[in-house]
């Protein structure tokens, strides 16, 4: 359950880097998050999660953890940045979905890999920043502590971050871009092996390639020792290589989440952020 909770949290909330100033090396907090969205991209049904939210910030030179966004900085220039980024997907109970009845559950999945980001307008030290990002991630599912490789995903996107730009200290993030998955990843989510085929759910083999589009927006704020955040995301799988899979119930789906955390411990050592 601990593994499922942590991966679900990584998959949902988003935070942003702050304007350069002296801040504690690390901060610890605890809160809760409510998340709701389709069971998986293209699914007919929806699931709502109420989860504890461990809030961890670490402002190291090479390793950085901001809320639930984790990255390892490999290269940093004025415009070009290369880092290791992390994402994920929440678990799915197949028995609660008509299209997947009798099929194995989808385990929570951790996504990790390099991301090349290029800033073409603004800067991370300014009030706003435009970037193009190219994250390529390996997908690893985890049922308890038994990991299994589930292929690769690629989500090039156009991103806009506004820091200390909105009134009241609110920070805005928006991104849009296509998604791609290799055959192994698409088969895991949308394939129907022969042994699970039925008259209503024929055997289906998913190919690699275009996997739809993703558009997202998030708002976060730090008010004293309380952090609050929310996100809104729209996924559309129309035109994807697997859009004729019997496991796809609808083209579009909206996900939403809201979270808070109380910061109760900070490092006495300050670093420039």
Q: Can you tell me the CATH architecture?
A: Beta Barrel
Q: What is the CATH T-level topology?
A: Outer membrane phospholipase (ompla), Chain C
Helical content band: under 10%
- Average pLDDT value? 86
Largest sheet: number of strands, sense, barrel closure? 13 strands, antiparallel
Whole-number tally of structural domains:
1
Q: What global shape is seen? A: globular
Structural class: mainly beta
Kindly provide the name of the CATH class.
Mainly Beta
Rg, rounded, reads: 19 Å
Q: How many β-strand runs?
A: 15
The separation of the N and C termini measures: 34 Å
Count of alpha and pi helical runs: 2
Q: Low-confidence stretches at least 5 residues in length (pLDDT < 50)? A: 1-19
Give the helices and strands as they follow along the chain. Answer: HEEEEEEEEEEEHEEEE
Strand content: over 45%
């Amino acid at each position: 359950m601990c593994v499922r909770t942590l991966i679900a949290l990584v998959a949902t909330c988003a935070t942003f880097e702050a304007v350069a100033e002296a801040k504690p090396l690390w901060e610890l907090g605890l809160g809760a998050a409510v998340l709701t969205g389709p069971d998986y991209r293209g699914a007919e049904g929806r699931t709502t999660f109420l989860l504890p939210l461990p809030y961890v910030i670490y402002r190291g030179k090479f390793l950085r953890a901001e809320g639930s966004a984790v990255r390892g900085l490999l290269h940093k220039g004025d415009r070009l940045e290369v880092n290791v980024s992390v994402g994920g997907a929440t678990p799915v109970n197949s028995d609660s979905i008509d299209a997947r009845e009798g099929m194995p559950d989808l385990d929570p999945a951790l996504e990790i890999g390099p991301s090349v980001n290029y800033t073409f307008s603004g800067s991370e030290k300014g009030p706003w920043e435009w970037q193009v990002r190219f994250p390529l991630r390996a997908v690893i599912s985890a049922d308890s502590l038994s990991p299994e490789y589930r292929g690769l995903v690629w989500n090039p996107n156009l991103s806009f971050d506004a820091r200390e730009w909105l009134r009241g200290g609110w920070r805005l993030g928006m991104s849009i871009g296509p998604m791609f998955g290799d055959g192994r990843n698409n088969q895991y989510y949308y394939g129907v092996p022969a042994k699970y085929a039925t008259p209503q759910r024929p055997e289906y083999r998913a190919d690699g390639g275009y996997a739809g589009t993703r558009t997202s927006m998030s708002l976060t704020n730090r008010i004293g020792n309380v952090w609050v955040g929310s996100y809104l995301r729209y996924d559309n799988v129309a035109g994807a290589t697997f859009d004729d899979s019997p496991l796809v119930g609808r083209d579009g789906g909206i996900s939403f989440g809201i979270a808070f955390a109380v910061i109760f411990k900070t490092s006495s050592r300050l670093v420039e952020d």
